[in-house]
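Q: what sequence does this backbone want?
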């Protein structure tokens, strides 16, 4: 059985780690370099670094900050925010990123997925999708969750897989920051639909929520932020709990 992954997420705004609820009410959560190093030491399987204001501010992700974080971690590291071309990716990989995450730019130009997969390989391309349930349909949103699109979760992720994405990072905007649990129903549907790994994001509030995402949602990995950032849950405690409940994790 494949090992399930625990992934802390560093949402970056103005060089600081931040966290909000339902994509708003942002508050400071600390220094991203210190947090990244701490999570690597705790046994996180990967890290995700998202420059959450890059697209809205029409600028590129901070390459220098990526270098600083990468210098302090020894685990795979995904970077996203403001990536809109093949030319944007090479500096990030050179700075130490192992994968790149694309969201708004891929919706705007789906061929970007093909181009990145061809240039760097599918294993480097994570298609991030932010979705909210509207009239019984999971609708894709862009620009940090602020803009609804015509794309729907299941058809868009299937297209992303076909174009060469190596992984899906699915964030339920309805669950994000609420600590009420992950969106397990759509997670399970994604598991049934896709052949590539799915990372669950949005809603973690306790250890049981991670267990449910793996057991009920069949997620390949779970991503969380505030629970880890504010010291309410440590990665070793979470992994021991999951291991006790027959979820295969790297201890």
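A:
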């Amino acid at each position: 059985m494949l090992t399930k992954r625990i992934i802390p997420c560093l949402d970056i705004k103005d060089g600081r780690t931040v966290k909000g609820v339902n994509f708003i009410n942002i508050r400071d959560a600390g220094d991203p370099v210190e947090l990244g190093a701490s999570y690597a030491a705790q046994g996180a399987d990967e890290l995700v670094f998202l420059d959450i204001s890059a697209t809205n501010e029409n600028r590129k992700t901070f390459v220098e900050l990526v270098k600083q974080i990468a210098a302090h971690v020894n685990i795979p590291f995904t970077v996203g925010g403001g990536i809109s071309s093949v030319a944007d990716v090479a500096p990030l990989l050179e700075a130490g990123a192992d994968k790149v995450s694309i969201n708004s730019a891929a919706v705007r130009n789906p061929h970007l997925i093909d181009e990145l997969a061809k240039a760097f390989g599918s294993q480097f391309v994570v298609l991030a999708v932010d979705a909210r349930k509207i009239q019984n349909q999971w609708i894709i949103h862009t620009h940090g969750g602020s803009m609804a699109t015509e794309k729907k979760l299941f058809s868009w992720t299937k297209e992303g897989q076909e174009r060469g994405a190596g992984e899906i990072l699915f964030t339920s905007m309805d669950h994000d920051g609420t600590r009420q649990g992950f969106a397990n129903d759509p997670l399970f549907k994604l598991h049934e639909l896709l052949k590539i790994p799915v990372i669950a994001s949005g809603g973690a509030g306790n250890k049981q929520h991670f267990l449910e995402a793996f057991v009920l949602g069949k997620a390949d990995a779970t991503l969380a932020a505030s629970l880890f950032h504010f010291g309410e849950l440590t990665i070793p405690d979470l992994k021991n709990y999951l291991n006790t409940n027959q979820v295969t994790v790297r201890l």
